[in-house]
Amino acid sequence: MALHRGSSxxxxxxxxxxxxxxxxxxxxxxxxxxxxSRLAQDPVPADVAYQLIRDELLLDGSARLNxxxxxxTGMEPQARQLMADCIDKNMIDKDEYPQxxxxxxxxxxxxxxxxxxxxxxxxxxxxxxxxxEACMLAGIALHRRWAARVNDRTRRPNLVMGAxxxxxxxxxxxxxxxxxxxxxxxxxxxxxxxxxxxxxxxxDTIGVVTILGSTFDGSYEPIADISAALDELxxxxxxxxxxxxxxxxxxxxxxxxxxxLLWDFRLPRVASINTSGHKYGLVYPGVGWVLWRxxxxxxxxxxxxVNYLGGNMPTFALNFSRPGAQVVAQYYxxxxxxxxxxxxxxxxxxxxxxxxxxxxxxxxxxxLLSRGDELPVFAFTTTEHVTxxxxxxxxxxxxxxxxxxxxxxxxxxxxxxxxxxxxxRNGFSHDLADxxxxxxxxxxxLLNDDSxxxxxxxPSGFRH
Length: 464
Ligand SMILES: Cc1ncc(COP(=O)(O)O)c(C=O)c1O
What we know:
By secondary structure, the chain is an alpha/beta fold. Helices cover about 35% and strands about 15% of the residues. The protein has three domains: about 45 residues, no CATH class; about 260 residues, 3-Layer(aba) Sandwich (Aspartate Aminotransferase, domain 2); about 110 residues, Aspartate Aminotransferase, domain 1, CATH 3.90.1150.160. A seven-stranded mixed beta sheet has the order 1-7-6-5-4-2-3, sandwiched between helices. A four-stranded antiparallel beta sheet has the order 10-11-13-12. The radius of gyration is 25 Å and the shape is globular. The C terminus is likely disordered. Bound molecules: pyridoxal-5'-phosphate (PLP). Pyridoxal-5'-phosphate (PLP) binds next to α6.
């Protein structure tokens, strides 16, 4: 459900067209006579509808210049072709499209292997629409395991996580009536650490969510340390709390670039892991994945055996119908790149991120919060040299050149800190990074000039 309310001002019927222009160029000559937020009485010719909608979408920014998103903005023509070939396949019709289902199974097996499931045949998992659905499913499994353990309906479960969690975890807690135990940021600690994680756990903690890596600054949380601290807590007779790793981005980076980092099923306390196929899994939106280390980690009563269109189908999902094309595209990426292909793509993104962060760090106006050496993502803020403008003004100034670099304020207890964040992805080349840097320098010079001469319109002002 998209929550869009009411009708728009543009709904007015404009009417009228010049017949000569219309004859010469049906799309451009036509003035839209159909309402935009209600169904029109009559059809619009396909060419005209296509042209008008395409034109309207020109107002969207360029996806390639969108440095705000983690989501894939470019795939090879062969992948696009495969997706077009599969656009009519419903992922749920496993009996009708058994080979699409088989490709999904292979992707789960590949991820189980990549994330070191103790026995890849034992690991269970599925595709989802993205990490949000994957996190919901993982959260439900944690909740079920806790409920079976305590068997007392009067108690209220809680989930421990850092204030840097993505909103999907707050949604999970609200929708399933779980108390969110959110550990605030403190000083220069921008994510969860072992000490704070343990301090927030009790007998009603269904799990600790750890993030690889943080949406706010791209940093990895110290999952091995958190796991060791929870082991210690359990060994002292405290609660035995499982970990879920939200690897929306990092679960497709760390296996290729950070071999020595312990974060996955090699840690016995890690019960489940999710990732977004459509982020560093390199597929267009929307596909995600969630895996449980073994059958015990996923309570069997959550799996529905649906008798559907002649087949018996086990499912654990919030959605029923959803596109099969993204799953096929994920298999294509896995099949095509292999380990060394993935390593090359992710290393290139990290190289660009570290090059850019190094250049930005050298400017007196900025201070880095992270440098892109974990996720290829970094955040930076202004130094004390900057008094006449702020990160929001710079974000808007960059937008004038088409760059979408978000500026935002950190959560509790660092709301005083406002940053810019740059997400480097496959397709954001060194050349583009050079162009961004050149535009960034021009924008900073203009903002500095404006604030010296007093032509800026205040700290958030910018010049047209
Ligand atoms: C850490 C983390 N978890 C979950 C999500 C939600 O992912 P999706 O957009 O695939 O639903 C995001 C998205 O940015 C994220 O960064």
